[in-house]
Each structure stands twice: as C-alpha cells, then as structure tokens.
Design a protein that fits this description.
By secondary structure, this protein is an alpha/beta fold. Helices cover 40% and strands 19% of the residues. It folds into two domains: 246 residues, Alpha-Beta Complex (Spore Coat Polysaccharide Biosynthesis Protein SpsA, Chain A), CATH 3.90.550; 61 residues. The protein is globular, with a radius of gyration of 20 Å.
Length: 359
C-alpha cells in the first residue's frame, strides 16, 4: 500500500456527513449584488442563472428518511440565507457561509466550482462525505455501500455511458486529468446524483495544483480556467487506486419516438456526419473504453429534465417512482422568456413530484 493511502480511513455509518451547495435566489440582497457583479464581470456563456423551487427542503427530508446513517447536514450558502419552512433542529442542518471556505476577500461568490473545490474546509467535516445538489432526491433506502465498495476499500464514482471529446468548458481540468492519464482523449459524463468525497483528497488536489486552485478560489463566476472537481475526482481516484468507475443507465423512460426526435434535432444543428460520428462513439467505441470498468445492471438512477412537456415529465416521474429508483434528479432545464409559463410548468411538475415523494 502506498504511503498516501494510509491516510484514508474507512467510512462508517453515523460518521459520514452530507454537504449541499445552495443559495436563496429570491433574497433581495443576493439579487442586487449578483446583478452588480454580473455587469462588472461581463458574464460569458459559462454562467447559468439559479432558480429555486425549494427543492432543497424536500431533498433534505428525503436524506433523513432514506439515509438515516448520515451524521450532519451542512448547507454551504451566502451569509444570512435560510431554507424556507425548514426545521433546522429537527433535521440537524448547519449553515456554512462562503467566507469560511474562501475568505472574505473572495466573497461574494457565485461559482459552484469554487465552492465544491474548497468544501473540505468545513469545520469538523467528516473524512468521507456525500455531496448533494439541491435537486437530488433519495427515493428509496440507500446504504453506505451504494457509495463505497467495502471489499476493495474504494469509492464508487458513477458515470453514464456517454462520451465527450475533452472538456471544452474546462481545459484546466482536462490538463490535470492528462497528468494521470496522458492518452485519455474522451471523457465520460457524470451521473447527476450524490457523490462521495474524501476531504483529504480535496486538500491534496488543492496543494498539488496550487496555482490553479488559487485561480479557482478567486473566480466569482465559472471560468474555463477553474478546476472542476466533480469531473476531475473520478479520474483522480482511479489514478490513485482509491476509486472505481461504475456505469449506470439513466432509468428515465424514453420512447423510440422521443429518441428519434432527438436524433433529428441533432442532425439539423450539427449535420449528418457529426451526428453519425457521435452515434458511433456512444454505441460502439464506448464499449472498448468501458471494457475494464464496471457496469451496474441495476436501475438506481434517473435524471429527469423538466421542460414544457407536462405529459412526458409526469410519465418519467411516475416511471422512476414505480420502479423504485433510488436516486432521482429533477433538472430544471426549461429556458423561456415567458416567466409566467415557466413558473406554471415548474410548479406543476415539482409539486406533483413532492406529493408523490411524501406518500
């Protein structure tokens, strides 16, 4: 065993924390400051707006219900932000202000990549912890071995069997991955679900890539030069022999008609040759890349993209719930300038899901 591996313990029930990144996007001070810095920094396409449907309240409830072995729940957020209708004592939630992780000189901050990289600085954080987005929901009982293989003592890092050429949104992250895997050309898409981290690993990454880490710490908004931990970490674990890739199928029901429409839309945008190339990569070349990695036959994960198709959204939600999927992500991806229509669609779908979740 390598010397560095001796620093890593084994996660135990009752000794693993959950960590959320969250902001109250309806907070008037937050809106004013964000608008100010958005104009000052002339936001580019790598910034995306935040929208809040109080998902985090229901996400936290689902964790306490189906992951009873979780110790603390930490919520990283701007100072003064509070989750609406949350009984903090009942659910044992602790707020961590951005200043604690980044220092006052780097705040306010609107960059999730920055906060993810430095979340290991949370005071009294467990060695192993589970990182959540506010739109992740735990629908069935989840055990610690869903995140950690106790036979091999390795973290399970989940990916979808989809490829992309490089990481065009983060060349810095691509370069770091290539330090470990010089011939790595294609990268897998992560599953939108909770992920396990070891805080000592994060500290090691920050110390080893200090210049890139300091740039990331100072980035108020997402930047191409940031270290994007969630994309890097799986490869880091693989290189250190402390993690394993697990490939999952997205269990969202997709009809052949829907897939055909996606294919046609892709052809219109990217052309026939590029589309056929992507089909080849996703369905044939990928088999070669995953040959020595693990594939799970269990359907435990569902990413549901909420858009303006009420019927499809509800069918996907019902399918995931009826098939006892453990991890569900409701991804608010509907873009429109019609704010009332957007509000109605989100309200309809999220409230339907919450009602089903609470049954």
């Amino acid at each position: 065993m390598k010397k560095e591996e001796k620093l890593r313990g084994i996660p135990k029930e009752g000794e693993v924390d959950a960590v959320y990144l969250w902001v109250d996007s309806n907070n008037s001070k937050f809106i004013k400051e964000k608008n100010y810095y958005s104009k000052k920094y002339k936001l580019n396409k790598y910034w995306s707006p935040t929208r809040d449907h109080n998902e985090i309240l229901h996400s936290i409830k689902s964790v306490r219900k189906n992951m009873s072995w979780v110790r603390n729940i930490f919520v990283i957020c701007p100072k003064g932000h509070k989750i609406f209708n949350l009984d903090e004592k009942k659910y044992d939630v602790k707020y961590i202000n951005h200043e604690i992780l980044l220092g006052s000189e780097n705040c306010p901050n609107y960059n999730s990549s920055t906060l993810e990289l430095f979340q290991y600085k949370i005071p009294k954080l467990s060695e192993y912890f589970i990182a959540f987005n506010d739109d992740f929901f735990i629908v069935q009982k989840v055990n610690l071995d869903d995140f950690f293989n106790f036979n091999t003592n390795k973290i399970k890092y989940y990916y979808e069997q989809r490829l992309q050429l490089g990481l065009p949104f983060s060349p810095t992250t691509s370069k770091i991955i290539q330090d470990y895997f010089p011939n790595e050309k294609y990268y897998f898409w992560m599953c939108h679900m909770p992920r396990m981290f070891n805080k000592n690993d994060l500290k090691e990454i920050v110390e080893k890539y200090k210049k890139d880490a300091e740039f990331t710490r100072a980035s108020k908004f997402r930047n191409k030069k940031d270290i994007q931990l969630v994309y890097l970490y799986g490869y880091y674990l693989l290189a250190k022999n402390r993690g394993e890739f697990i490939f999952l199928e997205n269990a969202s029901s997709r009809s052949s008609k829907h897939l055909f429409k996606l294919l046609m839309d892709k052809m219109k945008i990217e052309g026939i040759i590029e589309t056929l190339k992507q089909v080849y990569l996703q369905y044939f070349y990928i088999r070669k890349l995953v040959k020595n990695k693990q594939k799970s036959s269990k359907k435990i994960y569902s990413l549901i993209n909420i858009d303006d198709d009420y019927v499809k959204n509800k069918e996907q939600i019902k399918y995931a719930l009826n098939n006892k999927i453990k991890f569900i992500c409701l991804n608010d991806c509907y873009n429109t300038t019609d704010e009332k229509l957007k509000h109605d669609i989100m309200k309809e779908n999220f409230e339907f899901f919450y009602n089903e979740l609470d049954k």
